Amino acid sequence: MSLAGVLANPLTPLGRWLGRRLWWIEHAFKRARASGKAVDDTRLRIFFVLVLFATGFVALGLGATKAALFSPYGEGVEPVTEPPGARADLVDRNGQFLALDLVRYGLYLDPREMVQKPRVRAALLAAVPGLAPAKLDRILAGERQEFLVGGLTPEARNYVHDLGLPGVSFEEESGRAYPLGELGAHLIGFASKDGAGLAGAEKAFDGAIRAGAGKAPVALSIDLRVQGALEDELDRAAEAFGAIGAVGMVVKVRTGEVLGMASWPSFDPNQAGQADPAAMVNHAAATVYEPGSVMKVFTLAMGLDSGVATPQTVFDVRTPLALPGQTIHDFDKGDASLPLWEVFTHSSNIGAARLGLLAGADRMRSYYRAFGLFDAAPSELAESARPILSRALTPNIVASMSFGHAISVSPLAIATGMSAVLNGGMYRPLTFRPLAPGQAPAPGHQVIRASTSRTMLNLMRLNVTNGTGGKANIPGLRVGGKTGTATKLVNGHYAEGKNAANLASFAAVFPTDGALSDDRYFVLIMLDQPKPVAADSGVTTGGFTAAPTAGRVIERIAPILGVRRVMLPTDLTPKAPDLAALTGDER
Asked: What is the tens place of the pLDDT at every residue in 255-281?
């Protein structure tokens, strides 16, 4: 029974006591009036009122105390849920914000509450940038409340509210903000207004992001410092050479973590609905290219690992290679037979084609499939594109694939396969989620021997010190790499001439020395149709466009990644290679 019930019940001891007190007070009033003492009567009434108020406050205080200490409310009650569409924050590997939910507002109009519609129209057009006049006019001409625009920040909402316009109202809505704007846009992706991931990491990790709303943020493998340097140099090169597109990637080859991925041109995911659809394509994952001579890395790895050739095996490159309906030339005509290591450093198409034919179609199919080049790159990104392949590996196709034609693959697939060549021979999917300290990388499978991987690292270093990749050399960082210049198909035919439309590439690795189990990093730069510039004598090959871009990226990110400069003689003055040191026996 409540306290009030106890006080009002005459059958309880407390009720009977209170009844007697009230009877005494009432008769005290009568006695005071009978004796003519009005002052005493007034004092008694005031005292009685004070007692009633005091009793009431005590009762309320006791009730409030009981409710606070012993109330069942809150026991077994579910926690407050996130609003529909809520998403966890996205951060980089160091906790820097990439995407987060912010309060946004939708603006609604009810023309029935407006008298001076022209004044409302003018005020809204001035207050809300990008407002569509046609939609505004249609709503103002109607007879019901309608949604006008969404995504207003609290500041914008308050500004419009303070205008005091009739018929204007607001409703809170979920809002996703991308504080970096265009930086990392293709990798980060974007989400719909109702909270569904539509592209990039927002789509790839949609389940984890939704489940983590209100909890810990979801971390990606990228490092914003690396991403910023990569995009800065890629933008610089694409604009300088007038390219129609460009791609950049940075991968930690031991673990398969993607530290940076860039596609040019970019877009602002905060305004995804207004972006040019062509700029929203993630060329690093969703576009396939005939990559050209960077594919010679795979061809040589196949030849060396299978025992078909050694670095000293000689190939005749003096005359073009004639096949039925096809003649294979070198960019620069050779006048000699070249050992395989010089086929690589001179980037000889003829030599690579002869190696591919020597290996044969079955061996090429087996190795290229093991390198992941016959399938879409295994990745969390839904944008990962399948390659374009010939149905049959005829001798012409084998020869062409050996130097990067007759096969179109995504840069993501190249980076995945190349990581296996450079990490000791273990093929594993690349990942966009960071590994915890001490965490083992994803399981993989061995595709080449460790000794072959060591030889390829040595050959890529030799290509930078003595071959076509010289413009990527950064003293002290032991950079290796392979250039690529693929002429593009125009009306079904490959373009001709040194300055014809091409795809210029450079696949780099640093540092090339150290144990195979050490950390090293793969950097890929691709420029789609670079234009001649006077500074490079009008040459648009990978060695003059993509290689120096990769070098600048490496120079900027090496300190971030903890790669120490160690000056070597070949950093400043190339010398004859130590052929005995080209091969390795690291297992």
From this structure: 999 999 999 999 999 989 889 999 999
Catalytic residues: 293
| Secondary structure element (H or E) that encloses residue 516, with its range | none
Angle at 389 between CA 385 and CA 390, to 5 degrees: 165
pTM for this entry: 0.80
For residue 535, is it left (φ>0), alpha (ψ between -120 and 50) or beta? alpha
In terms of Cβ atoms closer than 10 Å to its own Cβ (0-12, 13-18, 19+), residue 23 is: exposed
The separation between the first and the last C-alpha atoms of the chain, rounded to the nearest angstrom, is 84
List own/partner pairs for 389-398 with CB under 8 A and 24 or more apart: 393/361, 393/364, 393/365, 394/361, 395/323, 395/324, 395/357, 395/361, 396/323, 396/324, 396/325, 396/326, 398/356, 398/357, 398/360, 398/361, 398/364
- Say how many CA atoms lie within 13 Å of 313 toward its Cβ: 16
Q: How far is CA 65 from CA 9, 60, 248, in A?
A: 23, 9, 65
Contact 167, 113 (CB under 8 A): yes
Sign of the C-alpha dihedral computed for residues 173, 179, 182 and 185 taken in this order = negative
Identity at 178, one-letter amino acid code: Y
